[in-house]
Design goal:
Blueprint: H1 6-10, H2 23-29, H3 36-49, H4 53-59, H5 67-73, H6 82-95, H7 109-113, E1 117-118, E2 121-122, H8 127-137, H9 144-156, H10 164-172, H11 181-189, H12 223-231
Helix pairs in contact: 3-6, 3-10, 5-6, 6-9, 6-10, 8-9, 8-11
Length: 232
């Protein structure tokens, strides 16, 4: 019985070209590949789908020379980005510890941190989330320790993580002044809450009409009573 899942199919490499095709024809015939950050996210999601708890456990060992970290670094398009890919894989494994279903995540980390907190208040209304966000966006180098804390808080609050592929892309451009990643995360975190409009009040249902019965006739004096009154 095969253990191949739909996710495994998605991350398979394209078939090799036949012997009659040259290198140029091969490149034109193959479909465009997914961006490297998305390839990493697909591989990580497949680990949870396939219950590969051994590899996920290896990824949760920070800065360890484990095979899992090396495999995560393979998705980096250049050597300078290898550490980012390996450490985002570590954050993914931290968030999914004990999870049976993978979460692709959504939004930037700044937007995701708005979900940290409790019913009393989340995001800017939570003192811990505000302090953590301030430390992250004020760091010139990638604040890995604070990022781990943020992911752990999202997990403990049972809130969705950031989009893993987008997190990789943002961290790759962390020092790019034109990208302004730190500023964008701060804006996403402090975005004003949109007040939910109150539900439209329905007009009261019309009262059913009162059904009136036939008018009751009052009995007039009888002829005998009238005659008695006349003789008195």
């Amino acid at each position: 019985m095969s253990n191949t899942t739909d996710v495994d199919v998605l991350i398979e490499t394209a078939p090799e070209a036949g012997p009659e095709q040259g290198p140029e024809a091969t490149e034109e015939a193959l479909p465009p590949e997914h961006p490297p950050a998305e390839q990493l996210a697909r591989w990580l999601v497949s680990l949870v789908h396939n219950r590969d708890n051994g590899t996920l456990a290896e990824l949760r060992r920070p800065r360890a020379e484990e095979d899992a970290h090396i495999r995560a670094g393979w998705y980096a398009p250049v050597e300078e980005q290898r550490e980012i890919y390996e450490r985002v894989a570590f954050l993914f494994a931290v968030y999914h510890q004990g999870a049976t279903r993978p979460h692709w995540g959504n939004d930037t980390l700044g937007a995701a941190m708005r979900r940290i907190g409790s019913r009393i208040g989340r995001g800017p209304k939570d003192a811990g989330a505000s302090r953590l966000n301030a430390r992250i966006v004020s760091s010139r180098s990638i604040p890995w320790r604070h990022l781990q804390h943020a992911v752990a808080r999202l997990r403990s609050c049972e809130q969705a993580p950031p989009a893993w592929s987008l997190l990789v892309e943002d961290l790759v451009r962390w020092t790019d002044r034109e990208a302004r990643i730190r500023y964008r995360w701060a804006v996403d975190f402090h975005k004003p809450w949109r007040a939910t409009p109150p539900p439209a009040r329905k007009p009261p249902a019309p009262k059913p009409p009162v059904r009136k019965g036939p008018a009751r006739k009052t009995s007039g004096p009888t002829d005998q009573n009238a005659q008695k009154d006349a003789t008195t």
